[in-house]
UniProtKB/TrEMBL annotation:
Designated name of the protein: P-loop containing nucleoside triphosphate hydrolase protein
Ranges where the record places region Disordered: 104-124
Keywords, ordered alphabetically: ATP-binding, Iron, Iron-sulfur, Metal-binding, Nucleotide-binding
Database matches in InterPro entries: Mrp/NBP35_ATP-bd (IPR019591), NUBPL-like (IPR044304), P-loop_NTPase (IPR027417), YlxH/NBP35 (IPR033756)
PANTHER family in the record: IRON-SULFUR PROTEIN NUBPL
Similarity comment text for this entry: Belongs to the Mrp/NBP35 ATP-binding proteins family.
Organism: Gymnopilus dilepis
Compositional bias per record (Low complexity), positions renumbered to this chain: 106-119
GO cellular component terms, semicolon-separated: mitochondrion
Molecular function per GO: 4 iron, 4 sulfur cluster binding; ATP binding; ATP-dependent FeS chaperone activity; metal ion binding
UniProt xrefs under CDD domains: Mrp_NBP35
Length: 312
């Protein structure tokens, strides 16, 4: 059968200057937590041309398992409002706008008896869709969200996109339809994770998505208070990073960071608070050297992404 029309044309997302995806072929490697903290790390940096903080948004493209509502503390925020033109308005917390399929799901639990007007709980509502429905939802999240920030500015400098695991419909749809300016790949040290990461990178390169670099998450553990000198010996709970380093070298990709395993990162994510917004004194007290190093490494990731996006 002859193909109708020409090749698919990529297009920009309205009111968004740069698009950065956070991806991994493997699930459960901390991709959403990294995407969340990367977005806030970018928002803490200034635009070199205007001198004001970068305007950053966060888009959750994990249709079947959206995590951003919980990570942003918005899991019971209710449905988003619409503009007069029918576009979806992002929800905002901690000063950063975000959008997720999790905001659009019907509630599976009734609202609170104490407050019948409160939105119900939809965290347990499953999505049982075939591929065409998934593609349509992805396109709506990509092109029907109003990132103009109420017309107060020209929109976003950077949109961070949290990708689902795997090499299926969602990453293909993004890569084929959108001008993606960079992609950060997250992995853990295990060989099973690295195998899926290599597949994901190969798929992204096929649809011409530029890879900014790799992040090794849960690279090692620094025990708080285990050393009288204040400096702990790294413990490689999930294996040493040798295989990860070889993979990065073989693929000619830079390693942006090696993030330690930190208890506070998990607890703050469950509480809906980005870890990079925690006070330095609290981090040092609760998580010690590991927590401080995690924040520093995430700052370096943001610097690397900014440099790759704007060519410096």
């Amino acid at each position: 059968m002859p193909r109708r029309g020409g090749p698919i044309q990529k297009r920009p997302i309205a009111h968004v200057d740069k698009v950065v995806a956070v991806a991994s072929g493997k699930g459960g490697v901390g991709k959403s937590t990294v995407a969340l903290n990367l977005a806030f790390s970018l928002a803490l940096r200034k635009n070199e041309h205007t001198g004001v903080p970068l305007r950053v948004g966060l888009l959750d493209l994990d249709i079947f398992g959206p995590s951003i509502p919980t990570l942003m503390g918005l899991q019971n925020a209710g449905e988003p409002a619409l503009t007069d033109a029918g576009a979806i308005l992002p929800l905002t917390n901690h000063g950063l706008p975000c959008m997720s399929m999790g905001f659009l799901l019907p509630s599976s639990q009734p609202s609170s008896p104490e407050d019948p007007s409160a939105p119900g709980d939809n965290t347990d509502t499953p999505i049982v869709w075939r591929g065409l429905m998934v593609q349509k939802a992805v396109q709506q999240l990509l092109f029907d969200v109003d990132w103009s920030l109420g017309g107060a500015s020209s929109g976003l400098d950077v949109l961070v996109v949290d990708m689902p695991p795997g090499t299926g419909d969602v990453p293909l749809t993004l890569g084929q339809l959108v001008n993606v300016d960079g992609c950060v790949i997250v992995s853990t040290p295990q060989d099973v994770a690295l195998s899926d990461v290599r597949k994901g990178i190969a798929m992204l390169r096929k649809v011409n998505v530029p890879i900014t670099g790799l992040i090794l998450n849960q690279a090692y553990y620094l025990c708080p208070g285990c050393s009288s000198s204040g400096t702990s010996t790294p413990r490689y709970l999930f294996g040493k990073p040798d295989a990860f380093t070889r993979t990065a070298s073989r693929l000619s990709l830079p390693v942006l960071a090696e993030l330690p395993l930190v208890e506070g990162v998990s607890s703050s994510a469950d509480a809906g608070r980005p870890y990079v917004l925690s006070g330095g004194g609290d981090v040092a007290k609760e998580d010690g050297e590991g927590g401080m190093r995690w924040r520093e490494e995430m700052g370096r990731v943001a610097e690397g992404v900014v440099g790759a996006l704007w060519g410096r």
